[in-house]
Structures are given as structure tokens and as C-alpha cells.
Design brief:
It is built from eight helices and six strands, in the order H-H-H-E-E-H-H-H-E-E-H-H-E-E. By secondary structure, it is an alpha+beta fold. Strands 3-4-6-5 form a four-stranded antiparallel beta sheet. Strand 5 and strand 6 form a beta hairpin. Helix 1 (16-30) crosses helix 3, helix 2 packs across helix 3 (46-58) and helix 5 (98-136) runs antiparallel to helix 6. The chain starts with 15 loop residues before the first helix and ends in a 12-residue tail after the last strand.
Length: 233
């Protein structure tokens, strides 16, 4: 099933640098992913894509891991999956820098952890207020996850959603606040709570970029939405 919620990647014509940026963006949005998949989606030859990926790896912007084997073990080397490193994600920009970390450190010193949490809650409430109507209007968990992924993408998180097992999996391939959240996990905690509120169900955060994972991943169970009245819809 194709991912939804992230912007489609179109290879600009001409300059190698723009093509490499398109390759890097696909690694950002879909990684870990094979070079063959990148080549197919961008309409490039596998050789050309490998050249760009090799350059990203050489520059420390991408890394690889072995793909899990499916079925019986066959001959030959296992396929490689590629994804961006923290350095590679930095090419897409960060909304917060050292000034934001310094400001939150000062806030923590003056008001303690509760002051930081209040700030985090106020920050995420702006996102909730802007997108709540579009998300809660969806009929089931899958459609709400798609709507949430679209909203997050519009806010710069390059998000996608797909069906996995007994639920939906929400992936944020870019985190504009990763450097800040690494020191102040309240940002991730309040975001997770906001997702549960918007989706009307308990959610589980499986991985975060702030903790060194490649993608922020949230599991959303396919359970009936619980309205304010307390009974499943």
C-alpha cells in the first residue's frame, strides 16, 4: 500500500545538485528504501541513483542497512536499504536552533519542568486548533491517520500513514524540533498526547528522531472512536 500524506517528489531537470536533492528527499520521506525503488519513483536509471546515493553516503548524509530477507534464504548479497543520517536531514532545515535550546534552558531554570511542559502544551495546541476539524471529521482510524499525516506535512514534518497489522502507522520523516526535543522530551510527550486527543484513541510512540531513530513512528490501533460521551461511536 502506498504511503499517503507526503508531497510527491518530482525530479527537477538539469542540474545534478537538484537531482541529488530529489533523491535525498525520497530517502527522507520513505527511508529505509532501496535504490531500485528510488530509481523507479524518480524515473532515473538505477546506476544514476546509486551514484547520487554513494555521494550522499560519502558526505555522511546517508547510511545503509541490510534489508530483512523474505522467505527462503537465496543466493547473493542481501539488498541494501538507504536512509538519511541526522546530517542529511539537516539539509532540509530546522525551525529551531541553539537559541531555542538556550531559551528553554532558561525557562526550565526559572520555572522548572512544569513551565517547559506548559510551553510545549501551548505550542501543540496551536496545531490542534488549526487542524482538529479536518481530522475528527474522518469516519475511521485509517482516514484520521491520513488526515493527520497531511496536516503534519503542511507543518513541515514530511509525514505519511499506512496500514500495518491491526492498526495504522504514522511516520514523521522530518522533525523541525528534533534538536530541542532531544534535550526536552516534553515536546514529544505533549505531541503524542495531542495525537491521541485528535484521533480519539490511545496511541503508542514507537520511535523518535530526537532519540536517534531514523523516523518518528506512532502506532494507532484500529479501535472505534470514543466521543466525549464516553461510549464508542
Amino acid at each position: 500500500m502506498k504511503n499517503v500524506g507526503s508531497e510527491s517528489t518530482v525530479v527537477p531537470s538539469g542540474h545534478d545538485g537538484r537531482t541529488r536533492h530529489a533523491v535525498a528527499r525520497l530517502l527522507l520521506e520513505q527511508g529505509p528504501v532501496t535504490a531500485a525503488s528510488v530509481a523507479e519513483q524518480l524515473g532515473l536509471s538505477p546506476t544514476a541513483v546509486r551514484r547520487h546515493i554513494d555521494a550522499l553516503v560519502a558526505d555522511g548524509e546517508a547510511t545503509s542497512r541490510e534489508a530483512p530477507r523474505q522467505g527462503q534464504r537465496g543466493r547473493g548479497r542481501p539488498a541494501k536499504l538507504f536512509l538519511l543520517t541526522e546530517q542529511g536531514r539537516a539539509r532540509f532545515g530546522h525551525a529551531y536552533d541553539d537559541l531555542a535550546v538556550a531559551a528553554l534552558r532558561f525557562l526550565a531554570e526559572q520555572g522548572g519542568e512544569e513551565a517547559v511542559r506548559t510551553f510545549a502544551e501551548r505550542r501543540v495546541s496551536a496545531f490542534v486548533d488549526q487542524h482538529r476539524a479536518a481530522i475528527v471529521a474522518q469516519p475511521d482510524a485509517a482516514e484520521r491517520a491520513k488526515a493527520l499525516a497531511l496536516a503534519l506535512t503542511r507543518e513541515g514534518y514530511a509525514a505519511s500513514a499506512r496500514h500495518v497489522g491491526a492498526g495504522e502507522q504514522l511516520c514523521q520523516h522530518l522533525c523541525p524540533v528534533a534538536h530541542v526535543a532531544a534535550e526536552f522530551p516534553q515536546l514529544c510527550e505533549t505531541e503524542t498526547a495531542a495525537f491521541a486527543d485528535l484521533l480519539g484513541t490511545h496511541v503508542q510512540r514507537l520511535a523518535t528522531i530526537a532519540r536517534g531513530d531514523a523516523v518518528c513512528t506512532t502506532h494507532i490501533p484500529n479501535t472505534p472512536r470514543i466521543p466525549d460521551g464516553g461510549e464508542p461511536a
